[in-house]
UniProtKB/TrEMBL annotation:
Domain N-acetyltransferase: 10-158
Organism: Adineta ricciae (Rotifer)
Name listed for the protein in its UniProt record: N-acetyltransferase domain-containing protein
Cross-referenced InterPro entries: Acyl_CoA_acyltransferase (IPR016181), GNAT_dom (IPR000182)
Pfam family, one: Acetyltransf_9
GO molecular function, one term: acyltransferase activity, transferring groups other than amino-acyl groups
Gene3D superfamilies: 3.40.630.30
Amino acid sequence: MVDTNEDSSIIYRSIKQDEHDQALNLWYSVFEEAKPGCFERDFTNEGSPTREEDDTIGAWHNGKLVSAIHIRRVQLQSRDENNVKYLCGGMSNVATLPDYRNQGISRNLLRMGIKQMEKENKFDLSILGTGICKHYSVLGWEQMNVPTVMIIEWKNFDKIIDNTQWYATSEIIHREKQLLLDIYTKSPREYQFDRSSSTFLEHFVGWNWQLEKDIIYIYRENQLGYIVIGKAEDIDNIYISEWRAPNVDVEQKLFSVAVQEIQRRQKQQTNNIRVHGLPQHMTLNEFEQWAGKINIEYENDMMIRNVQLPHEIFEKMKFAYSNGSATFWQGDMF
C-alpha cells in the first residue's frame, strides 16, 4: 500500500479529454470482468448525449491517476400528468487502484461529485448500484430493498397469438429504433430512465441487449408493445428482461408469447419462468391469479440520494422503487 496520508501530493480535479485513456485504463484494471467497450460509451455523444466535460473526476498521486468516478447524466421520466423529467446523476465507475485503497480517496471524489451536482443547481437526485453500501451511506445515499426478479411457476398455457415473429435485437435496434423508443416513452413505468435520443437507445441500451444476444417481439395489433427475452441462446439462464405495454390486455399477450418462446427453446424442460421486473399494469395478486405462483427476489445494492427534490417527491420515488412500480435496469446506466 502506498501511504498518501503522510504527504499532500494527492491532486483532485476533473479529468480532461486528453486524459480519458488514463481513466479507461484505470476502470478496466479495477473492473476486470467489464466487457470491451463498456466504459468508452461514457465519453461518446452517442452513448452519453448529455455529458459534460467535468463529469469525470480523478485523483492523481505523483502524476499517476489512482482513483476516478464518473457522473452519468440521465433523465428520469415520470408517469404523472405533466410527464415531468428529473435530472439524475448516476454515480458510476467508482474505482481506486488497490495500493491506494482505504485512505479516503474515492470518498473525497464522491464529496466533490456531490458538491458539483449541488453547485450546478440542475440535478434533482443521484442513484447508484454497489455492493459496499456503507461507503456511500455516510455521504447521504440511502439503501433500498428493491424487487428485481419474479420467478413464475407458469400455469397459463392458453395460446393467444400464432406465428409470432422474434427478431435479434442487433437487427431490430437499427431498423426500428424510433418505434421502440416511442413505445417505451408512451407506455412508461411510474419512473423510468429516459432513453432519448434514438442514438442513445441504439448505442447504449442496444449495446446491452446485443451483448446478451437478446431477442425481441413487437406487438402491432391495434396497439403497440414489445417484450425482450434475454440470453436467448442460453437455455439454462434465459429470462424475460424487459417489456412495455399500454394496458393489461397487451401485457398479458406479450407475456404469453414470451413464455411460449422460452418453453420452445427449453423444450418445456421447466415451467419456471424468470422475469426481470414486476408487472406493469397488474398487481402481484392479479398477475399470480392469471399466470401462476410467484416468488420475488430482492436486491439491496441500489442506493438513492436527494440533491434538490422536495421531500414528498423524493419519498414518492423511493416508494415506487421499493414496490416495483419504478424500474432500475442497469442497462440504462452502467
